[in-house]
Structure prediction request, 413 residues.
Amino acid sequence: MNRTRRRLQIVTAGVVVAAWAALYVAVITHAPLSYDPTTESAAKVNREFALVLAVPTALWVTAALLLVNHWWRQAGRRLSELDGSGWLLAAATATLPADRRDWGAAMMAELTQVQGPAARWRFAAGCARAALFPPGGSRAAVVATGALAVAALAATALGTGAVLPAGRVFALTFVGLVGGLATLTVARSRRAGWTAPGPAMAGLALAGVAACLALTIYYLAEHPTYNHGLTVSLPPLTAVVLAVTLAGCLGLALRPPRWLLADRPGRWLGIAMAVVLVGGSLLVTLPFQLGLMGYLLAAALLVVLPGSAVAAAVGRTFRSGLWACAWAVVLSTPLLIATWLVEGLHWDQAGWGAVLDGEGPLGAGLNLGDAVWWNLAHLVLWTLPLGVLGAAAGSWLAHHRRSRQQAGLVSAP
Prediction:
C-alpha cells in the first residue's frame, strides 16, 4: 500500500513539472520574450524566465502532494483497490445527496458480487446513469427547459449577428452553457434536491456575473478593437474562456454541491476573502493609481494564504481551508474581472494606459483580454496552491492544539 502511495506521489509530481515545462516551452516558442540585444542575450532572458517559473512550479508540486496525501488518508486506500468499473461507480455515487448515500453504498457492495469485466462495466454504467439522472423527474419539464435553451441560443445568434457581431462567440458560448446547466439541473432536481446557497453567496455571484456581462457587452460595442484597430479586444479563445468562467462560477454559486455548502467556516471565510480581494483591487487602482500586476501577487499571500489557514484551524479540518479558498476563487473571479473593466475605462480616459501595468495608452479594449487572462492566471496558478498550503498549515495547527489538549487531559490527576 505504501508503494502504491509513493508511485502516486511520483506520478503527481511528474505531471505537475511536465505541465509547467510545457508552458515554459510554449511561451518561449510562440511568444518570445523581449530583450535588449545590446545588453543581454535571448538565452539569458530565457534562463531568467525559467527561474521565475521555478517558484510557482515548486509551489504547485508541494500543493499537489499535500492534496494527494489528504485524498489518500480519506479515500485513497479504498479506491486504489478498485478497477475501472469501480472507479466509475464511485465517481457517480460521490455526486449523490446525503439522503441517497445509502443507495450508493449498496450499489458499491453489489458490484463486488458481479463477475466478469463486461458485466461489471454494464452494472457500473447503469448505476452511474441512475445516480446522475435519477428517475422520477418530470420529463415534460426537462423537455421544456431544453426547448427554451435552444430558443434562447437561436435568438442570441440572430441578435448578436445583427447588433453585436464582435460578441457572437462569447454570447453563444455563455447562453449555450447556461441553458445546458439549467436543463441538467431540472433533470436532477426531483430526487437530487437543492440546497439554498444563502443571500450573501448568491448576491455576490449574481452581481459579479451581471456586471461582467454588462461591461463585456459595453466594451464589445464601444471598444471592439485597440492599438489603432489592429487588435481585436475579445478574440474567440478569450471569449470562450470568459463564457466558461462566468457560467461555471454562476452554476457553482447558485447550485453548489451539498458537501461544499455544508462547511460553514469554509463558506463564510471564503465570502470574506472574496470581498477583501475585490475591495483591495479597487483601493490600489482608484486612489493610488497602481497597476494590478503586483497586487494580484501580493493579495494571494496576504489574504488567501492566511484566510485558508484560519478556516482550516476554525473548522479543524484540511477540507475547511480548501473550501474557503475555492469559494474565494469562485466568488471573486467575476467581480475582479468587472472591477478591472471599470477601471480600464477610467484609466484610458485619464491617459494612464492599461490597468495591468500602465502600458500604453493603446486603447481601452486592451483591458478586456488582460482582465480575463491575468485574473485567471493569478487565481488558478498562484492563489489555489497558496490556499492549499494555508489549509495544510491551519489543519496542522488545529491538530497540534487538539493533541496538546488531549495530552493535558490524560496527564491530569
Remarks:
- Residues 85 and 117 are 8 Å apart (CA to CA).
- DSSP finds 14 helices and two strands in the chain.
- The first strand starts at residue 225 and ends at 226.
